[in-house]
Amino acid sequence: MALRNFRPLTPTLRFKSLPMFQEVTKSQSKPVKSLTEPKKRSGGRNNKGRLTSRHIGGGHKQKYRKVDFKRRKRGMMAEVTAIEYDPNRTARIALIKYTDGEQSYILAPEGLAVGAKVTAGEDAPPNIGNALPLREIPLGANIHCIEIMPGRGGQIARSAGQQATLSNREGGYALVKLPSGEIRRIHDSAYATMGQVGNVDHMNVASGKAGRTRWQGRRPHVRGMVMNPIDHPMGGGQGKSKGGGGRHHPVSPWGQLAKGFKTRAKRKASDRFILERRKSKKKRA
Asked: Which of 82, 167, 171, 277 is most buried per CB count within 10 Å?
């Protein structure tokens, strides 16, 4: 994916960098109606109308695309008919058509083009876009859309540019190095898709203006430091200060530490599947 830069004629254009959508198929401008459903907006409010998630509201109207994360049709060849833009995710999606005429959406990996053939199953070749059990994937291969539990559907490495690496297999489990650096044991019957998720340059996109963020449904975020003490623990003080003149660690409006505080449960059942944490302590010499 290529990015489009602009001449710095205005402050907005100076740092703007937007995708060119070259991989998106122009002929397929609208999604398949049978593969979409309405997407209701909450505005950050719960069923009582009270604000429970801040900085959410507005944005362009969207329809949800039903992506097949389970790759339900096994052993049947499908052809990629279009690469589409999905406003609900950072990755592009591919519209595939099976030999029996059924259509479906899957995540579009890097290098998948219109006219390519994809399939899912134990006998599928390890080509880009094919879904296989982890026991059938060659060691060292890049994979995405990985199931945590067999049959649950892909949950790991689904955003733009993400990929994991199958490093080893032992005792009915596969050792997968996740994008975060964590090494995790996953049952070798769980399915994963070959390749890297497309739209690799998404991380380099710069909107250039606040208005484009509002189109995406994100409202302004006010820093706690510029608030009053009654509104935030870090507010107050004469001028710019940390917590009213004294040093105060960054916290949420309700006092929870924001940096370095571990929120993961101390005793979690899935801990036994983690061989190496994403932030492993370096051994001192």
From this structure: 82
Q: Tokens at residue 264, please?
A: 């993961």
Q: What angle do CA 64, 68, 112 make, to 5 degrees?
A: 100
The answer to whether the beta carbons of residues 158 and 107 sit under 8 Å apart is yes
SS3 call for 237: coil
Q: Which residues lie across from 169 on neighbouring strands?
A: 174
Establish how many alpha carbons lie within 13 A of residue 3's alpha carbon, considering only the half-sphere containing its beta carbon.
15
Task: Specify the CATH number for 227-285; select among 1.10.10.10, 2.40.110.10, 3.55.50.30, 4.10.950.10.
Answer: 4.10.950.10
Specify the pLDDT at position 77: 96
Residues 6+ apart with CB under 8 A from 176: 134, 143, 146, 156, 164, 165, 166, 167, 183, 184, 185, 186
The β-bridge partners of 184 are 176, 274
**Token match 């519209």: residue?**
95
- pLDDT tens-digit map of 224-259: 888 888 998 888 888 777 655 556 788 899 989 988
- In one letter, which amino acid is 182? E
Domain ranges of the chain: 18-202, 227-285
pLDDT one-digit tens code per residue, 153-171: 999 999 999 999 999 999 9
Q: Find the mean pLDDT for residues 169-180.
A: 96
Tell me the pTM.
0.90
Tell me the CATH number for domain 18-202. 2.40.50.140
> Residue 285 has what pLDDT?
45
pLDDT in tens, 101-154: 999 999 999 999 999 999 999 999 999 999 999 999 999 999 999 999 999 999
Terminal C-alpha separation, the chain = 43
Q: Which amino acid is at 55?
A: H
